[in-house]
Amino acid sequence: MDIDKYLGVFMGLLIGDALGAPFESGFLERLVWRFIGKKAGKQRYTDDTEMSIVLAKHFIKYNRFEPNILAQEFAKEVKWSRGYGRGAVYILKKIEKGMSYQKAATLKYKNGSFGNGAAMRVAIVTIALFNKGIEEIFKAVKNISETTHMNQEAIEGAKIIAYMVYMAMKIDINKIDKLPSLNLNDSILNNLLSIVSLKNYKEKIEFIKESINGETLTKSEIIKFLGNGIAAINSVPFALYSALKYKDSDIKDMLNYIYKVGGDTDTIGAMAGAIWGAINGLSSIQKATYSKIEGVDLIMDLSEKLFLAQKN
Fold it and tell me: Which residues neighbour 288 within 8 Å (Cβ) at sequence distance 6 or greater?
């Protein structure tokens, strides 16, 4: 596997997150981010990237994922200025005070959080365990998701993003022009449908399959059929659609499309950015796209270490 794809996944996540934060729905969110959204002249990233960094550092240290330790590490990094949701802060603060993540994750929500907080970070699980195969990735995704999200829709959404990144990393970008886009999209979506168990996700993926090769969906169509909110079921499908629709385009075109639709723009951008980066690699992203985003050197370093860990 080429290191360019490892860099593409993590940098795609960072770019989609940081550039999407100023467009997130809600007047108050946008107003707050206007004041805190830059650091030393660079666009700040949000909790999406922050939790992904924690995941990467954890794996590099232990060469595996330890959910109990990881939950504590997530809790220690919580900063309101990174845009953590109130539910996530509540859960992580309980964990920081000594409560088990198993109890904390269902304290506020009886069936666990249905949000996209697990899905936004699992691209890192895929690149960390890529050589272990998809079954090992799925086991880790479930365990890591449950540190904050016990809800089955949240876990399924995380599984979908992890699988999409896994499949995307296997695409040979040098041969992609020789493959009919229709056949490639159908192949990807058929494979994805084979691992999805929840009916509501299957229905949305079937809709993507029917529409992906037609005219680009409008904002109203996205909101009606796929969703653009904070729930995993209402954000993962939009990220998936965007990444496939714009896989042959500049990442900025994809992100501008996501941002114009609105909603949970940073997280949807992060998920779609990771998939796009897995297909195209960092070499397909112009430096100007990320030159004014914080954390680039750190993300590059962590990506390289994850790549080396897989080689060894």
Answer: none
Q: pTM of the entire structure?
A: 0.95
Greatest CA span in the chain, whole angstroms?
55
44, 76 in Cβ contact below 8 A? no
Sorted by sequence, the CB contacts under 8 Å of residue 141 that are 6+ apart come out as 118, 122, 125, 155, 158, 159, 162
Gyration radius (Cα) of the chain, Å: 18
Burial class, 134, CB count within 10 angstroms (exposed 0-12 / middle 13-18 / buried 19+): middle
Delimit the domains of the chain by residue range: 3-311
**pLDDT, tens digit, for every residue of 144-171?**
999 999 999 999 999 999 999 999 999 8
Phi-psi region of 39 (alpha: psi -120 to 50; beta: other; left: phi over 0): beta
Residue type at 73 in one-letter notation: E
**Tokens for 303?**
């990506």
What is the CATH code for 3-311? 1.10.4080.10
Q: In angstroms, rounded to a whole number, what is the distance separating the alpha carbons of residues 61 and 41?
A: 31
Question: Could you tell me if 70 and 62 are in contact, meaning their C-beta atoms sit under 8 angstroms apart?
Answer: no
Question: What distance in Å separates the CA atoms of residue 62 and residue 69, rounded to the nearest whole number?
Answer: 10
User: Is the per-residue pLDDT at 206 higher than 90?
Assistant: yes
